[in-house]
Structure prediction request, 398 residues.
Amino acid sequence: MPTALIAALACAISLGACGSSAARELPDATSDATSAVATAAAASGVKLVNVGEFKMPLYVTAPPKDLRRVMVVQQGGRISVVRDGKALSTPFLDVSSRVTAGGEQGLLGLAFAPDYAKSGLFYVYFTRRDGKQEVAELRRATSDRANAGSIRSVLVMDDPEGNHNGGQLNFGPDGLLYIGTGDGGGGGDQHGPRGNAQSLRSLLGKILRIDPRRSGSKAYRVPSSNPFVRRAGARREIYSYGLRNPWRFSFDRVGGDLIIGDVGEQKVEEVDFTTIAQARGGNFGWRVREGDRPYSDGSLPGAIEPVIVRTHDEGWCSLTGGYVVRDPALPSLRGKYLYGDFCKGIIYGARLSSAGARGDEPVAGLPQVPTLSSFGEDARGRIYVVSLGGAVSRIAAR
Prediction:
């Protein structure tokens, strides 16, 4: 495929790859790393097992303690059920009538409440028909079907552009809902004098933390331990800031560390690693810094430094954050953080700590995944790999 066409395709469908309204040419995804992966495949102890084909899948997750089901989030507004390894024809949820889908917009995230088995509550993040981003609560009807009529709006955010929408929802180890939001889009976060990501008056370019359950007349509750609840003019929901487009972030199942894949502008992609406590009030640097490089004027005292940086000169275009492997069936990968890139499609693994990353290299045995849009994790801790082209696969032992 010609490079110009690759660029046009990536800008049309990628989740964060285009830093500005103008398309940029994307490097050839083929690299020496690809060859290394292919060469080592036969001797590796891991492989990809196909789970199914879906229409523009963006994410995979599962209800807590449900060992039979995984849910596949699709950009157009449907969530499909894979039960005992087989995709069901009837979706778990279809909110396509409420969703604007295309480019970087759509149904972007899903999280089940920690007490889902009892409460039946879960949460979705989507782009509304009016372009705003919404987090909404719904309730289960059966184990394989949601009650679409139970939808309740929790949080709505104005969004000035169609790109950089964030979309990740995760319940943290503290049982609270963490929400990843993009900086509002366009290029260079040109929103106000400092940009949305550095402004504590904006919910954009942040990790938010709320208790999403209704509290009296309020749609949700802000924890009193959030870092800016007593700062005049600051949004109380903010937990961390200075992010460009934290398209995918996750918590390590062991220890609860927070790991963020933040999509870069024109030069640098980054992975951030921090404990929950260190993330409280933490500034990840955008737009003063892109990755580990200066981007605009300003100072960042005490900013959290990325542990992995990847450049567009190396063929990266839109980093896809993943998970720390805790699947006991994959001893060779246990404790490694897996991540990739929308353009390169190569799955990398590294051992992360606040000091940086060790052993950051392609995972031998795993093939290239075209249009790598997301990773996912089920109730067992098994890791899934998602291609926007349709394929959803699980990483398994050979």
